[in-house]
């Protein structure tokens, strides 16, 4: 699927808004493209920028002509990109940008374009310098600014730009993308339930720590299925030493909450997420009575991890809670 098709199918509002601005000749001189971590902000900015210069635009870039290809290859002369994800944007970067756009355009389209990607990675001086630049728009200069965190930008920058918001990926698309990156279907399903973007899921899913903690969760549940005290025993003797730091404990609770959601789904006759553990979950769904309150207890514990408390006690408490509920 070309990026144009992706935008047309999955980001219809952005696609239509921009296309109708071009058609009506009502382009803004500065756009702010925003979205969650992992959203294709830079790709969108590049595609929209290209749409301004493609001679075959319909009204968005054809992605095939010589101009589009030259742009993709970085050979469009009147274009600058500052990438805040590669390095923080400094005042001198903005000043250089400003100086560059004092030149007369050398390309036939007469359009000069810049992209500032992940503008939140800059300091106050840079933002102020950019604001000044935005306050004096030049006729043929177009800006595409992107951000994953608009709260870090100045309100005056927000008010000087037209906003285009990318929607998060749908669950099925996310799982598919993660699988394409080599993560197993099971892990893709578990992790897409916990995180909203491809990069985070792929980086967690391919880490040794994740596999280790996931196994700890299922081993605890395996013990739980036999006997609740055995689960507590397993946790204390085999798991707690690996769950000392908050990051690991959080991941343990996240996967555990996923599992309990599935056990609850089985009791409610709803489809489950972690298909590979269906057998284990089935028997837990038969054994455990108060699954929804256990699930709530896990979520409550998850919130407490952020506070500075004894992690071991918190985790043990979940299984003591289950044990007490059985009496
Ligand atoms: Zn083209």
Topology record:
Elements: H1 3-10, H2 12-23, E1 30-34, H3 41-53, H4 66-72, E2 79-83, H5 91-100, E3 112-117, H6 124-135, E4 141-147, H7 155-159, E5 162-165, H8 171-180, H9 185-192, H10 198-205, H11 208-226, H12 228-239, H13 246-267, H14 278-287, H15 291-305, H16 311-326
Parallel strand pairs: 1-4, 1-5, 2-3, 3-4
Helix pairs in contact: 1-2, 3-4, 5-6, 8-9, 8-10, 9-10, 11-12, 11-13, 11-14, 12-16, 13-14, 13-15, 15-16
The chain binds zinc ion (ZN).
Can you describe this structure?
The protein has 327 residues and is an alpha/beta fold. It folds into 2 domains: 3-168, Rossmann fold; 207-326, Up-down Bundle (Zinc Finger, Delta Prime, domain 3), CATH 1.20.272. 57% of the residues lie in helices and 8% in strands. The chain is built from 16 helices and 5 strands. Strands 2-3-4-1-5 form a 5-stranded parallel beta sheet, with helices on one face. Helix 13 (246-267) runs antiparallel to helix 15. The longest helix is centred in the last third of the chain and has 22 residues, at 246-267. It starts with a helix and ends with a helix. The chain binds zinc ion. The site of zinc ion has 8 residues, from helix 4.
């Amino acid at each position: 699927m070309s990026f144009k098709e992706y935008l047309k199918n999955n980001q219809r509002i952005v696609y239509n808004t921009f296309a109708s601005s071009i058609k009506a000749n009502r382009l803004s001189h500065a756009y702010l493209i925003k979205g969650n971590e992992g959203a294709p902000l830079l790709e969108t900015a590049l595609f929209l920028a290209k749409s301004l210069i493609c001679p075959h635009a319909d009204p968005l870039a054809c992605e095939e002509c010589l101009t589009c290809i030259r742009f993709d290859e970085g050979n469009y002369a009147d274009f600058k990109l500052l990438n805040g994800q590669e390095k923080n944007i400094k005042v001198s970067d903005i000043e250089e940008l400003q100086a560059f756009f004092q030149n007369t355009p050398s390309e036939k389209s007469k359009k000069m374009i810049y992209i500032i990607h992940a503008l939140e990675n800059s300091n106050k001086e840079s933002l102020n310098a950019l604001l000044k630049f935005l306050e004096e728009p030049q006729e043929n200069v177009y800006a595409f600014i992107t951000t994953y965190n608009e709260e870090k930008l100045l309100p005056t920058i927000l008010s000087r730009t037209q906003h285009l918001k990318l929607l998060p990926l749908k669950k099925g698309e996310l799982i598919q993308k993660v699988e394409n990156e080599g993560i197993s279907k099971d892990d893709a399903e578990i992790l897409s339930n916990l995180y909203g973007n491809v990069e985070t899921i792929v980086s967690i899913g391919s880490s040794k720590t994740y596999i280790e903690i996931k196994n700890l969760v299922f081993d605890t549940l395996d013990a739980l299925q036999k006997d609740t005290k055995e689960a507590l025993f397993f946790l204390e003797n085999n798991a707690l030493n690996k769950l000392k730091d908050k990051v690991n404990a959080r991941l343990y609770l996240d996967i555990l909450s996923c599992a309990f959601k599935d056990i609850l789904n089985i009791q409610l006759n709803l489809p489950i997420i972690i298909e590979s553990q269906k057998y284990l979950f089935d028997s837990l769904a038969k054994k455990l009575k108060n699954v929804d309150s256990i699930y709530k207890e896990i979520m409550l514990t998850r919130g407490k991890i952020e506070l500075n408390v004894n992690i071991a006690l918190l985790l043990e408490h979940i299984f003591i809670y289950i044990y007490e509920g059985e009496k």
